[in-house]
Design brief:
single chain, Rubrerythrin, domain 2, mainly beta, 3 strands, globular, binds zinc ion, 18% strand
Length: 44
Amino acid sequence: MVYKCGKCGTEVPSIEEGLVRCPNCGYRIIYKTRDPIAKTIKVE
Ligand SMILES: [Zn+2]
């Protein structure tokens, strides 16, 4: 499964449990990119 940084868009090939962090910018929100159709979740 491939993940993608929510800030800089860097693809993260793997994530260790408890260490969700972009290796490029250090951003801590990573999205799953497994599904070809993006799903948007609104949090209000
Ligand atoms: Zn990043």
